[in-house]
Amino acid sequence: MPYVATAPPVVDLPFGLLPLGDLLRRYDYGGEPLACRPVAQGLLNRGYRLTTTHGTYFLKHHLDGDRESIARQHLATHRLQALGVPVVPPVRDTEGGTVAVVGGHCYALHPWIDGRHRTGAQLTLAASRHLGSLLGAVHTCLAQVMESATDRFTYQGAYDSAAPADTFALIDELLALARGRTPGDGFDSLAEHRLRERRALLERHAHHRPPAAAETATGWVHGDFHPLNLLYRGTDPVAIVDWDRLSVQPRAEEAVRAAAIFFVRPSGELDLPKVRAYARAYRLVSGADTAELAAAVHRVWWERLNDFWILRWRYQLDDRRADPQFPAVSALAVWWTRRYEEVSDAFAG
To answer: Most buried pick, 39, 84, 264, 321, via CB within 10 A?
Structure first.
């Protein structure tokens, strides 16, 4: 499941109010709407399977982002498709645009692609290698298609890692909120256990905090590469979707985060043989060396050790959509800490 560290969207549009007629009139071959049903309840967007008299489309309702940034994402996918990357660029309207703004909301119409999502448990070692090669190709191709001056912008994230003192304060706040729920349930009990456990781990490993302003190799990345954003047909990836987080980031960190999502088991352990196959293929295609991967492993491990976004959504925002991810995500942080050397060797060995 996706690793998301931002707040959930607060703007939405009820399904029954989708302006399908006004939207389809913007396209030469949009047709008249016949059926429209939701197919994705994403954390950042809404997706619909839209059938018209002219065909079937994926209608994306962007709940977050502005027209300019969405258009930049669309341009990137058109360029990536020309290089052979499996993407699904949006349909252009009669004026050549790809973002339709109707009633103050942003929409995009994409060709419908038949496919299914596959978790790491469903991938063989060969498929894991293919996955690593695919992400490596995404990073190298993005470096080509986003190289012009007009496509550059400064990476806004700070490289300073989470401070244990801030995390301890957050743990205390979340513990109070979890204990204060009446009546509590099994999730609240697990949350309390994991919070106490994590505080003890941080007390023991605070001296392993990554150094401030550490140098990292940055580049353009997908930003949200995980199983729900990759469609397969049989054993072949046919579409990388949801480019909303396209940005300049430490590229190897995306490779590590993606593996931690694809290859985590329900118990919170990583399938290290598959991670190793994936990472070697990624390094070969991307040109990233072992030192870059090892540094990324350390930064992402520390990030996970200090992050409680699922509990913040539940207790601070009263949003439980991410609750099902918590058992595996919280167990992974503990397991990763105990098996740190093995995990680092799987990525960089």
So the answer is: 264
Q: In what order do the strands lie in the sheet with 45-52?
A: 33-41, 45-52, 55-62, 105-111, 100-102
Say what the pLDDT of residue 43 is.
62
What are the tokens at 111?
């060709």
Name the token pair of 273: 């043989």
Q: Which range, 31-45, 56-70, 262-276, is most confident?
A: 262-276
Distances (CA, A) of 296 to 54, 250, 253, 290, 299: 47, 8, 5, 10, 5
| DSSP category for residue 276 | H
Q: Which residues pair with 46 in a beta bridge?
A: 41, 61
Q: Is the pLDDT of residue 91 over 70?
A: yes
**Phi, psi at residue 196, to the nearest 5°?**
-65, -40
Decide if 107 contacts 100 (C-beta within 8 A): yes
Average pLDDT over residues 174-201: 95
Question: Which amino acid is located at 273 in the chain?
Answer: P
Nearest CA to 3 among 317, 314, 321, 322?
322
Residue with tokens 């008249």: 32
Q: Which 3 state secondary structure label does DSSP give 111?
A: strand
Tell me whether residue 113 is exposed, middle or buried, using C-beta atoms within 10 angstroms of its C-beta: 0 to 12, 13 to 18, 19 or more.
middle
Within its chain, how far is the Cα of 270 from the centroid? Answer: 18
Closest CA relative to residue 209, chosen from 168, 174, 249: 168
Distance (Å, whole) CA 176 – CA 4: 23
Burial class (CB in 10 A: 0-12, 13-18, 19+), 142: buried
CA-CA distance, 252 to 74, in Å (whole number)?
A: 23
How confident is the prediction for the chain on average, in pLDDT? 89
Instruction: Kindly give the interhelix angle for 186-205 and 290-306, rounded to the nearest 10 degrees.
Output: 130
Q: Which of 4, 331, 320 is nearest to 188 (CA)?
A: 320
User: Whole-model pTM?
Assistant: 0.89
> Distance between CA 276 and CA 256 in Å, rounded?
11
